[in-house]
Amino acid sequence: MAFVLKIGFLLVTAFLIKPTALGENYSMLGIAAAMLALLFHLIDCRVHPMKKISIQGPHRLVLFLVLLLFSYLLGHAMLMNSIFLLNVLKAAVLNCTVVLVAAFILSEARANYIFFRSMVIIFIGFIVSYYVTIALAVFVTHLEQLELFRIQIGDYPSSGMTYFPFTVMYGVYTVDGIRFPRLLGLFRESGILQMFLIWSLFNLKSIRLNRLWIKGTLLLGIIASFSTAGLAILFANLVLYLFMNKKVMRGVVLLCLTYVVVMYAPFIGINDKTETHGASISDRTLATEAGLEALGNNPFGEGMYNTRIPNAGINLVAASSMIGVAGVLLAMLVYLVPALAAGDRRRYLLAVIPIILTSLISQPLLDAPLLYLLLMAPYKGEEEPQPEGAALLVQPALEYIR
């Protein structure tokens, strides 16, 4: 029971911290859930003396890098006399606490496997719910009649509408009068959900969910988010996959196709999106250019959150004006260095590069602890054989760890 509870509370923590929708307002509840997860982990280790209360090598490395990053961000903000020092302190406490708790729990192989497998299954549930909602709205009733409630998500007035059975929307994407509801899952923006789905897609073997229908479902979820940056990152990762597997000609062909798709795909290609949803692109472009200009004037940065540039933290490049060159380098090292300790470095890079690219060009993820938990996933080599007729979650987990 203690094992089930610690996994359960760690999953609750994952959806109460940034960059989830609830993480904007309920991060303190996330810390409380993390403490409960740690408590039940200690109880589980006490009941089963063969389990050690320790942090294993790869997780120790991730923890060290996160502590180093936020020590720098906090110390840097103090040196720069940041007027938002308290906010930086809160971010440091949240990130370091959650990553510390996760490092203890996820160092246990069985807990690690079941936690990340469960998370991907939850993502699949979001996607299935979305298409059930759309089917009901098209063939049975109006979408408005399926509305359940609204989740308040920061300063996003059109987000958080939740429909039967449990479909959280990021407003609608309107093209030529046609309204396309955007899948949000339980994240702050659709582009963030898409990043998690791409991460899942390239790590299915490690959690023994490498099945065609699951890949197809994840791709349907990626489509439903209507994110141009996510589309580009997906194709870029596919190109990288081909190059890593020495399929150079296929990679070159796909690279050319990627350019055509990203620029000219109907509705979400840059060419169409500039006409219909130009603010989505211009906001990031302007913030990135302003951030780089400020960084050129002051390579040391002004301190985290300590700037008047609009949307200064909209991506890591834009945030460079606040955290400086050293901060950007440290943030990149947090993602890249754990590859050295991963069971399969290629699988690690294929899963984590979409996170890096999303952070660099698209989304504000620097102070989002859930991203650092993903670095502790089981990036394994060969996939172990699956038992026939195994249950989706429990039986494979027991067979895998036994």
| Count of alpha and pi helical runs | 15
Low-confidence stretches: 384-402
Largest sheet entry = 4 strands, antiparallel
Order of helix and strand elements from N to C terminus? HHHHHEEEEHHHHHHHHHH
Structural class: mainly alpha
Distance between the termini: 18 Å
Percent of residues in helices comes to 55-70%
How confident is the prediction overall: mean pLDDT? 86
The total count of strands amounts to: 4
Spatial arrangement of strands, main beta sheet: 1-2-3-4
How much of the residues is beta strand, in percent? Answer: 5-15%
The whole-angstrom Rg is 21 Å
Which of globular, elongated, flat, extended, rod-shaped describes the shape?
A: globular
Describe the structure.
With 402 residues, the chain is mostly helical. The chain has 15 helices and four strands. It has helices at residues 2-14, 27-47, 57-79, 85-106, 109-139, 190-201, 212-224, 228-244, 248-264, 270-276, 278-297, 316-336, 345-361, 369-374, 394-401, and strands at residues 147-150, 159-163, 167-175, 178-183. Strands 1-2-3-4 form a four-stranded antiparallel beta sheet. Strand 2 (159-163) and strand 3 form a beta hairpin. Helix 3 runs antiparallel to helix 12 (316-336) and helix 5 (109-139) packs antiparallel against helix 15. The longest helix is centred in the N-terminal third of the chain and has 31 residues, at 109-139. The chain is globular, with a radius of gyration of 21 Å. 48% of the residues are buried. Mean pLDDT is 86; it is low at 384-402.
